[in-house]
């Protein structure tokens, strides 16, 4: 079951006695647990019937006491174990998970990693409640996820605006959602979010960012690339070297694949590479500028500079110096 369907059930007051939420992506876990907290109890019921406990300070006996207690002035009690990844004794709760209190809703928020599927606690939770595995959104799915989320909030977004959020924020769904909320304060429902909105309200430059640097390299435009790098020198958070190398490696990997595709249309490329058709069109242009031999050479250069960025073979060069040297080698034959 998706996190949206779980939240829909929660809003309809269809609760499970146990919610074991675990996995690599914290955003979905937070979204589900927040929905349960918001919908399980009325405000006047929460004082006596809601317990939010943190994994680092939790003790099995104390937790079991909370779970087995009966509600006061309410039909339900809510017990939320946040940061459950720090609670090392989850398996000691198995006797409860095997026979949960029907008047208690128990939510375990086990974030940043998957719980061991072989463990009894997870199996009992699935049998007597609900287990949700929160997986990271894949890199190739992120643009689509951003667009879908923005549509669900009553807005739309341009292709370039989507890629700007993707490049600048990356796969941090919680931060993406928060930034979109900020935009919602200043622009009307139904508005199409553009790169100008993002630049003015989120602080991401539509001209000086990792995406535009990749475009400059794609177009063999060394002057533009140097201008962007100079901006990064004054604004290091706008273009970390590790992110730039990753972005360029993805770019070269994509155009190398295009060289060997049987179907060379924009639609076929977009489908095969799982990118937006606009991106596919830009990659098609880049294909004519970079031969497979040059791409292979550039991938070796990127690996070399990845090591330099981590201190191997580099004792004095700044990130800005490394970026300029890297781009020069990538653009020139």
Q: Please report the total strand number as a whole number.
A: 7
Classify the helix fraction into a percent range. 55-70%
The mean pLDDT is 91
- Number of folding domains? 3
Reported for the largest beta sheet, the result is:
5 strands, parallel
CATH class of the largest domain: Alpha Beta
The low-pLDDT segments are none
Superfamily at the CATH H level of the largest domain?
Answer: P-loop containing nucleotide triphosphate hydrolases
CATH fold-level name of the largest domain:
Rossmann fold
Q: So how many helices?
A: 17
Largest sheet strand order: 2-3-4-1-5
The coarse overall form would be: elongated
Q: What is the correct CATH architecture of the largest domain? A: 3-Layer(aba) Sandwich
Strand content: 5-15%
Task: Supply the helix-strand structural class.
Answer: alpha/beta
Oligomer: single chain
Order of helices and strands: HEHHEHEHEHEHEHHEHHHHHHHH
């Amino acid at each position: 079951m998706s996190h949206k369907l779980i939240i829909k059930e929660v809003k309809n007051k269809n609760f499970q006695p146990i919610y074991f939420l675990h996995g690599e992506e914290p955003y979905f876990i937070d979204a589900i647990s927040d929905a349960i907290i918001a919908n399980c109890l009325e405000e006047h019921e929460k004082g006596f019937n809601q317990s939010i406990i943190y994994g680092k300070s939790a003790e099995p006996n104390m937790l079991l006491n909370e779970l087995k207690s009966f509600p006061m002035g309410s039909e339900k009690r809510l017990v939320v174990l946040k940061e459950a990844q720090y609670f090392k004794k989850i398996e000691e709760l198995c006797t409860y998970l095997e026979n949960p209190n029907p008047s208690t809703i128990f939510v375990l928020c086990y974030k940043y990693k998957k719980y061991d599927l072989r463990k009894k606690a997870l199996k009992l939770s699935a049998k007597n409640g609900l287990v949700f595995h929160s997986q990271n959104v894949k890199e190739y799915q992120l643009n689509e996820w951003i667009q879908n989320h923005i549509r669900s909030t009553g807005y739309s977004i341009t292709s370039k605006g989507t890629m700007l959020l993707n490049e600048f924020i990356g796969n941090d769904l919680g931060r993406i959602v928060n930034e979109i909320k900020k935009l919602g304060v200043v622009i009307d429902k139904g508005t199409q979010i553009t790169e100008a909105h993002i630049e003015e309200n989120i602080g991401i430059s539509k001209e000086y960012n990792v995406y535009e640097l990749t475009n400059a390299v794609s177009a063999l435009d060394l002057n533009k690339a140097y201008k962007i790098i100079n901006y990064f020198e004054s604004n290091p958070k706008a273009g970390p070297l590790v992110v730039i190398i990753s972005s360029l490696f993805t770019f070269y990997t994509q155009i190398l694949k295009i060289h060997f595709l049987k179907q060379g249309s924009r639609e076929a490329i977009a489908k095969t590479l799982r990118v937006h058709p606009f991106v596919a069109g830009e990659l098609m242009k880049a294909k004519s500028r970079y031969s497979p031999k040059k791409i292979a050479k550039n991938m070796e250069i990127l690996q070399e500079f990845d090591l330099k960025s981590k201190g191997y073979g580099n004792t004095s060069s700044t990130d800005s110096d490394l970026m300029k040297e890297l781009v020069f080698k990538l653009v020139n034959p």
